[in-house]
Amino acid sequence: MSIDLLKNIAELRPVGMALLGLDVGKKTIGVALSDPAQSLATPLETIKRTKFTQDILRLQALVEEYEVGGFVIGLPVNMDGSEGPRAQSVRDFALELVRYPEIVGREPWIALQDERLSTVSVEEAVDNFVDKRKTRIESKQSGLIDKLAAQVILQSALNGFY
After folding, report:
1. Which residues are within 8 A (CB) of 130 and not within 5 positions of it... i.e. 6 or more apart?
2. How far is CA 57 from the centre of its chain?
3. Are the C-beta atoms of 69 and 25 separated by less than 8 Å?
4. Other CB atoms closer than 10 Å to residue 75's CB: what's the count?
5. H-run or E-run covering 81
6. Which of 46, 80, 93, 114 is the most exposed place for a label (fewest CB within 10 A)?
7. Of all helices (H) and strands (E), which one includes residue 2?
8. φ/ψ (deg, to 5) at 157
9. Residue 94's Cα: distance from chain center in Å?
């Protein structure tokens, strides 16, 4: 199985299994989890990045714990639809992830989902709804923004399935 845009491989997704949504950044990976019916995404955690192998070990633990069948990874596309260095970094992460088939017991299903404005929408929601004593910076540092951005990315993908 290869890595591709969600719209090109949605019908190949592992059915009846949870999916992990990932918002991959330089310092953190926001993680969200779908239900096995792939209808609802929930923010799960934020992984503080150290080494890629450590990232993989944490993802493998989540895959085993929640019986995950694949990944939806946010692709940071520019507003004009072009891809820049951040998008290439995410593609590189996905390619590395494919090199670890033991994570899901086979070559993983990995879909890339356009994540334009996902973090911006989460930051605005945090500003409007989270305890006003907690600043946006504190929300980012606590990992809240990253896992909520992963939830937005994953839910957007799930909505496209039905």
Report:
1. 139, 144
2. 16
3. no
4. 21
5. none
6. 80
7. none
8. -65, -45
9. 11
CATH match of 3-161 with 3.30.420.140: yes
User: pTM value?
Assistant: 0.86
Give the closest residue to 3 by CA, choosing from 115, 157, 107.
107
Reading the chain (162 residues) residue by residue, the pLDDT tens digits are: 568 999 999 999 999 999 999 999 999 999 999 999 999 999 999 999 999 999 999 999 999 999 999 999 999 988 888 888 999 999 999 999 998 888 878 889 999 999 876 665 655 555 555 665 555 555 455 678 899 999 999 999 999 987
Q: In 3D, which of 94, 123, 106 has the Cα closest to residue 5?
A: 94
Q: Helices 118-129 and 144-161 meet at what angle, rounded to 10?
A: 120
**Residue matched to tokens 């493998």:** 60
Every domain of the chain and the residues it spans: 3-161
Alpha carbon distance 106, 69 (integer Å): 9
Check: CB of residue 52 under 8 Å from CB of residue 131. Answer: no
